[in-house]
Every structure is written in C-alpha cells, then in structure tokens.
Amino acid sequence: MGGVGEPGEGPAQPGAPLPTFRWEQIRQHNLPGDKWLVIERRVYDISRWAQRHPGGSRLIGHHGAEDATDAFHAFHQDLNFVRKFLQPLLIGELAPEEPSQDGPQDAQLVEDFRALRQAAEDMKLFEAKPAFFALLLGHILAMEVLAWLLIYLFGPGWVPSTLAALVLATSQAQCWCLQHDLGHTSVFRKSQWNHVAQQFVMGQLKGFSAHWWNFRHFQHHAKPNIFHKDPDVTVAPIFLLGESSIEYGKKKRRYLPYNHQHLYFFLIGPPLLTLVNFEVENLAYMLVCMQWADLLWAASFYSRFFLCYSPFYGLPGALLLFVAVRVLESHWFVWITQMNHIPKEIGHEKHRDWASSQLAATCNVEPSLFTDWFSGHLNFQIEHHLFPTMPRHNYRRVAPLVKALCAKHGLNYEVKPFLTALVDIIGSLKKSGDVWLEAYLHQRSLPESWNKNLGSVGQGCKRREGRALAEPPRNPRSLLDGLHIVLGAEEKQKGCGQPGLADLFLQSTSIYGVSRGQPGQMVGKEIHKNQTCRCQTRGFVRSCILSRVTHLSRDVAARTAEES
C-alpha cells in the first residue's frame, strides 16, 4: 500500500501500489476542470474525461468530491463494461482509516440500501418483460391511427377535431412515459437498443431530441430538488421554490408578484411548458450541440403530422391542431411529473447519501390500475428514483422492501391520494410565495425620504448602517400624527418604484415592537395582498390604515406604560 497521495499524481501505473487519499484532499478537487470522485473506495480523476461522459459533463460533475458508488450502480446496467472506462482514470484509493462516505452520513443506512439493491437483483426485478413494453408501444400507435381516422371518417368538424386532439394528447403523454423507460435503459438488455428505440419514440412520435431529454433528466435523478443541479427546480425567476423564496425575499428581488405565483402558475405553467419552453430548449440544444440525427428524427415527426392533417384543415388549421395537442399534453406532463417533487424539500446541496437524498425529494401516489397507466407508473416515484433502471412493472414488488428500509431507519415513506398530490402543488407554490413576501417585506430598507417621515412617528428615530432604529413614542398620539404625515407624502410618490404604504405600515409596526399577530400587522398584509400597484389612492389607503390604527396606538401605549 502506497503512502498518502499528493494532488496531481496522475493515473496509477498498472501493478504499482495505489496511493491513498483522505477526504480532506479529495474535497479540494471539485472545481471546473479539476474533479475527483470516489467509487467503491477508489479515487478517480475525471477532470479531462468528463466532457466525453455519455451522460454529459454536468451529470458526472455533480458528484465531484463525493462518494458516487450508489449513483454509479443506479445509472448503469453493465457495470463490467463501464469499469473499462474507469480504469485509466484511477489515481488511488481511500486511506484505510477513512470512511467510505464523506460527511455526517449514516453508514448503516448506506449498507442496508446496498443490501436491498442486491436483494432486488436476486429477485430479478431489473429484468424487463418485453410483452409489457410492446403493448405500450402498440396502444400508442393505435391512438395515433385512431385520431387520423376520426378526421378522415367524420371530417374536420368541432366534435371530431376535439376528440382527435384528446386522443393525440393521450398518445403524446404515453410517449413521454415510454421514451422515459427507454432513456433509463430499462426495456432492453443492451443499452444501444434502448437508445435507438428512444430516438424513434422521442423523435418520430414526439418531435423532440432524445439526447436533450437525457441531458436534463439524468441531472434531475442525480440531484433531485437541488438548485443549479436539478433543471426541474431551477425555475427562478419565474417561480420560486423552497429555499429560493427566502433568498429572493432577503435580496429584495421582485421580478414577478411571487405571492401570487400559485395563480399565474395556471396561466404559464401547465399550458406552456411543452409548447414553449420545451420546444425552444429542445431546438437550441440540437443546434448548439450539433445533434443532427436528433434534428432529422424531429423533422420526420413534423413532416408526418402536417402531411396527415393539412389536407383536412389546411396549414393554419393543422398548426392550430398541433398547438391544441401540445397544450393538452403539457397539462398532463406538468401535473403528473411535479406532484411527486414540488411539495417536497427543495434547496441547496446537502451532500446526503443516495437513499436519503432521493427520499427527501420524492413521494408516492396511491396506486390503482388507472393511476399506474395514466402516470406511467410515476406514482411509484420513490422506487423509480432509488432504482432508475428498474422496469416500471416491478415497482409494486420492490415497494414493500423499500418501506421496510424506511421504517428501520426512520425515513419518511410518503404516499398520498392522487387528488391530494395535485392540490399540494398549488399549496406548495402558495407557501413559497408567502415565505418570499414575508422575507421581502421585513428585509427591505426604506428610502431616506420615508425615514424622515417616520421620524415624525416616534422620537429618537435614527438611521444606523442602513437599519431603522426607534424608541417607542411617549405620546401614542404622535403615532397617528406621523401616519398622517406619511400618508400625505404618498401623494408625492410618482410611479411604483418607491415602497407602498402597506410596506411602510409593516415597517412601522416592526419599529415599534408590535408583535406579528397584532391587528395592525394583519391589516398591512391585507393592503399589500390587494395592491395591484403600489400607487394606491390616498383615500383608500388612509381609510384602511386608520381603521386599525387605534389598535396599534393602544399597543404602543401599553408598552410605554409597562416601561414606565
């Protein structure tokens, strides 16, 4: 056994003793162009090879300076084949005294999860049933033919067109599921066969790039619900999720009314994701990454679609049918894929072990024959994330083993009713928006002109290092006088760039030590909630504030009396 290795030693020579490394050394190599990772206690330098990684440099780079053993097993079918590519990258191994995982991870949980995976392999749960996937492809093709026959036999009227759009949207939704299975190499034993079949389904049947999908989706699986690593939750500044709500609030960022994001979600989320975001992102990926084969596959889809429907509708009508199908399909995609993730923990990297990170970011939906089919078995999201290459028809069989593992280690194995899971998406968006609003209002500083007016509210108000500090006024009436002065100043504010009166009122309650549950605070929130623009009329805002200002005065008077 060699001594403790030094950075930059390069690949180990065949037959030579392997240098050993400590985690503190490995942690230093997590930079662009300088990345190490650990697999089965062996240390690999992937700095140069990452760009040639079939899953993309970002995917493998997300595991930089970490133990990637479980991710390595989760993403690859033929481990012996993949190890051939790892051998030239080997530079050493972990020192004997070093733990297999870096940081405060549960070694027993890691060991038990690996035993569970071995048990699933022994039960042959990673072997697919060809008839199952053949049936899926058959019913997709049947729906494509049925939609065309509806128009051919009954003409392009509203009723046949509506039925055809619904059938085509269902077919497109099921195509997402089938290409998803193929992308995870869970259908055929040979990876190459899965890739070719995925290009056909994704390209000819859907008009998208298989490589684009795998590029973004594998990152989601590697680091689910982790900002800047999972593309599915890196959606700011359009939507704020999890920890980003507090961050945007503290930094006083307000690009959109995030406290209403649960409402505008219905306008730009489900209707436009596939039609706009995916279409643009997909085309840009194919052109920038020069995926010409995928571009040809996608072109074959559009050629087939417009050749089939333009004779009945003309080009504008066929385009309208295409848009309708994409919008319907987009609704399905958003609700089905996000019901398992958005309501869960979303934030920055926590460096958890594989099982803990997947369980923290996923939940299940109660199974049924309809739910299994409608969601493409994504209602078993926990099992799918723990074992991405497992054929979906085996999720039911492995689920009891996963439940037992969670019960043993006190992990949350969450299962929801279908409708509850859908409603929780909106609830999570609203909660994140409320958190942003709370942080935004309490972190913002007031312009000097406002602080001069606040000086009339209480005596001793000063500005120190950008923070407003004040002593409670000895005469509660001065609070009323100060508010009248501030209200008068509102008329002088031109445009929406200055703080609104609702914000000022919240700030004044904070300055005078009024607790959050007091009526004045609640009124301030009500005012802000109803402001479509900060420039409200003076009379409306005055009436709202003065209707509750007596309560605030009493609070201040009581506090003053106690201090006296």
Automatic annotation (TrEMBL):
Q: Which GO terms describe its molecular function?
A: oxidoreductase activity, acting on paired donors, with oxidation of a pair of donors resulting in the reduction of molecular oxygen to two molecules of water
Q: Report membrane topology.
A: Multi-pass membrane protein
Give the record's GO biological process terms: unsaturated fatty acid biosynthetic process
Major location (coarse)? endoplasmic reticulum
Q: Which SUPFAM superfamilies match?
A: Cytochrome b5-like heme/steroid binding domain
Residue span(s) of domain Cytochrome b5 heme-binding: 18-95
Q: Which PROSITE patterns match?
A: CYTOCHROME_B5_2 (PS50255)
Question: Which biological pathway?
Answer: Lipid metabolism; polyunsaturated fatty acid biosynthesis
**Out of the domains of life, which is the source?**
Eukaryota
Query: Record's Gene Ontology CC terms?
Result: endoplasmic reticulum membrane
| The entry's keywords | Fatty acid biosynthesis, Fatty acid metabolism, Lipid biosynthesis, Lipid metabolism, Membrane, Transmembrane, Transmembrane helix
* UniProt subcellular location: Endoplasmic reticulum membrane
Q: Which residues cross the membrane?
A: 132-154, 262-280
Q: Where is the signal peptide?
A: none
What is the name of this protein?
Fatty acid desaturase 3 isoform X1
Q: Which organism is it from?
A: Leptonychotes weddellii
What's the name of its gene? FADS3
